[in-house]
Amino acid sequence: MGLVAFIMAYALFAFIFYILQVIAYWKIFTKAGEEGWKSIIPIYNGYVQYRLTWDVQYFWVALGLAVGGGILNSFGGIVGVIGSLALLGTALMNVVALYKLACAYGHGIGFTIGLFFLNPLFMLILGFGDSEYMGPQE
């Protein structure tokens, strides 16, 4: 019975986390002049975020690294190591994407650290706070 309760609690937590992310992205997108419904579609919302804050070419690179790294990582051995390196590259690109997101709304490295460690909270702050969309920053 304990395992079932744990799985149910985990599923509830995951659902709440997803709903908070959708709400936050909805507000972030509408601040940038995008339609909020784009936050509901999982991969497409990442594409829109990259388009608003960085460059979509990097989105495709990150997606390719994630998919390719996941596939290669499943083989193990030296191929698995290459897959792990690709996944590490994806993680680094995601950190840069968080920095670009923070900069696009007038924040800096401190806010990026908050986005990294407390993502749902800081995404809600971006969406509901008085941060204004300033476009992609260099």
From TrEMBL:
Pfam families: DUF5684
Official protein name in the record: DoxX family protein
Highest classification ranks of the organism: Bacteria, Bacillati, Bacillota, Clostridia, Eubacteriales
Ranges annotated as spanning the membrane: 6-29, 50-72, 78-99, 111-129
Organism: Clostridium segne
Keywords: Membrane, Transmembrane, Transmembrane helix
